[in-house]
Amino acid sequence: MARPEPPHATDPSLHWIARFSAHGGPRYLQIVGFMEQAIADERLKPGDRLPPQRMLAERLQVDLTTVTRAYGEARRRQLLEGRGAAGTFVAAPKVDLSQVLDLSMNIPPPPTGIDLDDLLRQGVSQVLIHSDVDLLMTYHLGGGSSTDRAAGAMWLQDMLGPVDDSRVLACPGAQSALAALLLSQTRPGDTILAEPLAYPGLLAAAAQLGRRVVAVGADHEGMRPDLLTTMVRKHGARLVYLNPTLQNPTTHTMPATRRAEIAALATRLDLRIIEDDPYWRFAVHAPRPLAHYAPRHVFYVSTLAKCLLPGLRTAYVLTPEGQAQDEVLAALRSFVLMSTPLTTALSTQWIHDGTAATLATGIRQEAWARQELALRTLGDESLADSGGIHLWKALPAHWKGQDFVGRAREAGLNVVSQASFVAGEPEAQRGMAPHIRISLGRSRSRFELVHALRRLMELAHRRSLREVVV
């Protein structure tokens, strides 16, 4: 049986409407999404008139209340404006050209097809119904309750298959988990091995704790096993840090064969690996984590901050098989006694009742849509396989990374240069082509994101700030 044609196939005035998705959330939010995408793509332009609500409801074969809610939400987002009897029109951009547009913070975008306000109200209400308020407001044991750990095991199941709850720790964010692992698995002055470009949070934690991060050479598949062996012997290192899926900042994903090689090496040399894997759910075909190949040697870290909501402040650590957790928990308690009970309880509630999975799907859909939009806006084919919530963009040869970041800030744009990610000594930057990381999630709308990307490229292709048109 043939699928019905979308409305615009027979009515040119509805060219901006796409097909409804069975899993795209409430239809009124899908309609708003169609508008926002069309405005970002310039298929709908300021001043374009939209059909009357009753007519649109008839054409889409939905209730009038659905379209009314959609138009109301679109006005709230400043996408539309009413002009009395003249009708409803696409609004002129409300972006303040003098405001700073943040492309520096790696956070997930708002979810497609989900009313986050309602979701939070319902979630907190369920937590209060099922929890003792006194217990929510008192001290809790570090590592989470048995219910929290069970939620963590459920969350990790997509990546790793069935997980033993007793191996899971619930932590107040990935940064605290990383710091606790560094404290418990190394001593002051020890060397931690990482790829040449690594997560700045790791670099900061290592520096504050008196540990040294040394880079291990990488190729197009990631850290090279032969060079890892050499550096282990040279520095006596016992701990390796890897971010193997949609790596921050390069967006590269380590293939399964390389993961298996490094896991075998960790087993042979008795190494410990911190596998920081916040972006696994954004990858289209993510390989199994390193923890799958070396379960006795890998601390697997998965945070909700990068794929759900940063405000949840919840990360799960799967500890290696057969390893006591006491030293990790002792290290964690030395600087953060416990997770915030209310937000941890909300994370647990959402994972157990399926809300987290629904939210993750909506965020993933929006992230993929923003990736596609960014690639079209930037016109850079080298970014086509990026995925995730950020891009690693090469700069024209006339720019140095830090100089560009400074000029961008003066022009009202925040980005991050490669200097923030260099593991080891600053000399390691020599020979690296200048790059910036562009984060796609912080912008409040797709239109704002496109506006920011266009301004960024305007700057990148000029040699002085005076030439930039903002």
TrEMBL record:
Keyword 4Fe-4S applies: no
Residues of the HTH gntR-type domain: 25-93
UniProt lineage: Bacteria, Pseudomonadati, Pseudomonadota, Betaproteobacteria, Burkholderiales
Protein name, as recorded: GntR family transcriptional regulator
Coiled-coil segments on the chain, per record: none
Source organism (scientific name): Herbaspirillum aquaticum
Membrane among keywords: no
CDD domains: AAT_like (cd00609), WHTH_GntR (cd07377)
A single MF term (Gene Ontology): DNA binding
SMART domains (UniProt xref): HTH_GNTR (SM00345)
